[in-house]
UniProtKB/TrEMBL annotation, chains A, B:
GO molecular function, one term: DNA binding
Name used for this protein in its record: DNA-binding LacI/PurR family transcriptional regulator
Record-linked SMART domains: HTH_LACI (SM00354)
Pfam families membership: LacI, Peripla_BP_3
Native source species: Aquibacillus albus
Length: 347, 347
DNA sequence: TCCCTTAACGCAAACGGATTCATATAGTTG
DNA sequence: CAACTATATGAATCCGTTTGCGTTAAGGGA
């Protein structure tokens, strides 16, 4: 059996409570006693039993991270490791542990989450997604446990703390980046998934086009996700259009990669013949050829901020739920170019 | 305050011990009593307090997952989400929770790991990497806590339980796959990182070449990692060689992507002019153009098996530490072709 | 010297269950 | 009907910490 606070107390000729206070560095204990006790702790190789502390403090000092289940999503880039790094950076500062909630199906995840909350294994939760028909968030609301959603909640904005990019704004900015380069015929390639982020980015594209007085052709809009066949087909359709777009906004680097090679197969060059801006600024965008100009959503910061919000909320729950927007930044690389620049040169 | 086992006992007119036995479905309790107690639990909305159980059972029912810190590594594909899915699948079956051990630096990770072990917050650990100069594994050995390493341990094979692919064999197989296609001039592109897997794959390549009586030209061997500039340069050097290789073994899909576009820039075609086989079978290999033949290392299974080993070890620690090898499978796509096949057709 | 304040520390009760051992009840056997 | 055996239940104890409150002793003021 490991050495307990009592063993230390006995050996140091003090009461267990004194040892406890030494551990928490209470000002009520004299420096002399502290030194004595710490010496004994050292000698005996004492280490606090966190579980016992958890029990009496009624707080597990643990936050749960709820992963999205969908495999296709999880395949996407390095979202999980980066966001976890961000979360853990803050957790370490406040001595919180991280518990992963996951499962093969949405129902598994839901059950796991409920179990953790009811079993008091977590003090709060971070939900790594936001989507319709989700059971976890409603449960958490009703349970009263602090939680923050990473992404824009489907409903109940002021009742839910959330951290997100302004995806509408980001997509608008990306689109306007192209517009400022002189592009007017801009296509959009997104995904029509159930996740909020997909919708927001499409919305942002539309806003930018409209507020700049540009037409949105239906034939310029394509939806697919991580599907090379569809992707190539969609790209070909786009390129073969009589009035071919001069630039494309693509909501994910991976999809951009598909488009990229499809375009090259058609003997067009990027960015000379067509400009591309994509999202997420993953390794892919650095490695692609040419390297892709991509919107960095700052995943680490998303994680870090959501942890900050959560821990704040745990320490003093407030009725007003806030939201934090992490700015996105356009990482300029080599996939965009002013429209018709080469032509001008010839004049 | 939440309803406890005592509240339930009082309301049901039984002793707390009886309620406890009902929870664990002990055969010593009559069905009638069980029904009665369960009904009361239901009515009162009782849920077990896992923390209390943890304390008295002297087991946290939690396993720790130690991530690798290096950002460049974590950027790599979808290793983390997939391995976590595998681990969690088994954990759920045995009612284990997952605690993530991570940090911005190796030292942070080490400290976190020690804290978790000494504080008895975990019953065992899974280490997601294997590398030299690591402090975590030695500490775990000395602490006596059950753990399993994912990857081949640097030392102490029979003292450490580990789960791994046979990376030497996998690389040999990949190389022989090309050899069987008639290739003799085979290049190797790997990384010279500190991780064991990198060394093993290079070793496997060498073995295959040697045992098939093929020459290994120094100029056919290149090392880089996720670096487009180096990658392109290395590829150009390879292609511009007087006696150009007809096939390349590349130890990571991402690197293969770099090579792929460099080759296309030089107006060569894959697989017609040069065959490529890579590793990890990530989304990239499906999305690349052409889709890459890639060695699937079965990440989910790696996670699942390591969890199985760990939980076994927790339940009954044994002196003999075993190792489990997860088979790799070559996922055939369109980046490999028999050498000179087109030529033959012309005869 | 006596009283009062205050610093320093100890006591014991939680925290919410699991476990153990003793006891009670019902049923069986000779 | 006594003796005995299963089976079911109760009460006490423990797990390792924290914490509110009480105690002790030292020190200062009058």
């Amino acid at each position: 059996m490991a050495v307990t606070i009592k063993d230390v107390a006995k050996k140091a000729n003090v009461a267990p409570s004194t040892v406890s206070r030494v551990i928490s560095d209470s000002p009520k204990i004299s420096e002399k006693t502290k030194r004595k006790v710490r010496k004994v702790m050292e000698e005996m190789g004492y280490h606090i039993n966190l579980n016992a502390r958890v029990l009496v403090q009624q707080s597990s000092k643990t936050i749960g991270i709820v992963m999205k289940n969908s495999t296709s999503e999880s395949l996407n880039s390095s979202f999980l490791p980066e966001v976890v790094q961000g979360i853990s950076a803050l957790c370490r500062k406040h001595d919180y542990s991280i518990s992963l909630i996951t499962g093969d199906s949405e129902d598994d995840i839901y059950k796991d989450a409920v179990q953790k909350v009811r079993g008091k294994r977590v003090d709060g939760m971070i939900i790594l997604y936001s989507k319709e028909d989700d059971k976890v968030v409603p449960y958490l609301m009703e349970s009263g446990i602090p939680f923050v959603v990473l992404g824009k909640p489907v409903a109940g904005f002021n009742k839910i703390t959330f951290v997100d990019n302004d995806n509408i704004h980001a997509a608008r900015e990306a689109t306007e980046y192209l517009i400022n380069l002189g592009h007017e015929k801009i296509a959009f390639i997104g995904d029509d998934s159930e996740y909020e982020v997909a919708k927001a980015r499409f919305e942002g594209f539309n806003q930018a086009m409209i507020s700049n007085g540009l037409a949105i052709h239906e034939s310029y809009i394509k939806f697919f996700r991580f599907n090379p066949e569809y992707g190539k087909k969609a790209t070909r359709e786009l390129i073969n259009l009589e009035d071919r777009p001069t630039a494309i906004v693509i909501t994910d680097d991976l999809d951009a990669l598909i488009v990229l090679s499809a375009i090259r197969d058609m003997d067009l060059r990027i960015p000379d013949d067509i400009s591309i801006i994509s999202f997420n600024n993953s390794v892919i965008s650095r490695i692609a050829s040419p390297p892709l100009t991509s919107v960095d959503i700052q995943i680490y910061e998303l994680g870090y901020e959501s942890a900050r919000c959560l821990i704040e909320e745990i320490k003093e729950p407030s009725k007003v739920k806030k939201s934090v927007i992490i700015p996105t930044v356009i990482e300029e690389r080599e996939s965009c170019k002013p429209v018709n620049q080469t032509k001008y040169k010839h004049y």
